[in-house]
């Protein structure tokens, strides 16, 4: 898919990998500060891009996505980062590419059906098919080429790429009870995080294609805080760099 300027977002620096360093190595990078965030404008593996860190949560993500579209002229947005695994077969080290996103903590009932975004008439927002296909292809290639090294260096066994529903909320899921409540309420949810559905809603409202790719850092259970922190510090950047570089080179 052809974009004039792709917006690339993550919540935390580890989730962006070496992208900004790569942009600096490739040429001039202009940095603009807005709303306590830095936006890096330059060439990302051959594609004109604006790259930024949203920080954590739906409000932060929505505000950042809005700025990408309205101030920085992004005509498509890709979000990369980590997530907790929700469906039982989605394991730490797997990659999930969202087909659709929804807010698992949105509840304006009985005024509106549970999960529905009031006055938008929908709970789920589709990710852009072409962008998501390209991200999934990049994730497949990354795992095919680097899977052996991942297993050796990080003890991540046979990672897989999944496609499906990603759910977002302003809550870090870190207990058996919270995880099973989520599985019961939304049986098709593959992974949980704190930004994706907010970005998907902003993009839907403005007719901008978006896609979300997440590496599973934890099982959203009591061990999640430790697993998340370890994954973030030691592995997340390897995944993001590996997937983004392949995605961007193929798109450029
Ligand atoms: N991001 C990564 N792991 C998560 C979890 N367990 N809950 C919410 N967001 C997450």
Task: Note down, in words, how this protein is organized.
InterPro entries: MTA_SAH_Nsdase (IPR010049), Nucleoside_phosphorylase_d (IPR000845), Nucleoside_phosphorylase_sf (IPR035994). This is adenosylhomocysteine nucleosidase. Pathway: Amino-acid biosynthesis; L-methionine biosynthesis via salvage pathway; S-methyl-5-thio-alpha-D-ribose 1-phosphate from S-methyl-5'-thioadenosine (hydrolase route): step 1/2. With 252 residues, the chain is of the alpha/beta class. The protein has one domain: Rossmann fold (3-Layer(aba) Sandwich), CATH 3.40.50.1580. Helices cover 38% and strands 27% of the residues. The chain contains seven helices and ten strands. The chain has helices spanning 19-26, 58-70, 129-154, 176-185, 196-206, 224-234, 236-251, and strands at 6-10, 30-34, 37-44, 47-53, 76-85, 95-103, 124-126, 161-168, 189-193, 210-218. A five-stranded mixed β-barrel has the order 5-9-8-6-10, surrounded by five helices. Helix 2 (58-70) runs parallel beside helix 5 and helix 3 (129-154) runs antiparallel to helix 7. The mean pLDDT is 96. Adenine is lined by residues 82-84, 172-174, 192-194, 217-218, 220, 224, 228.
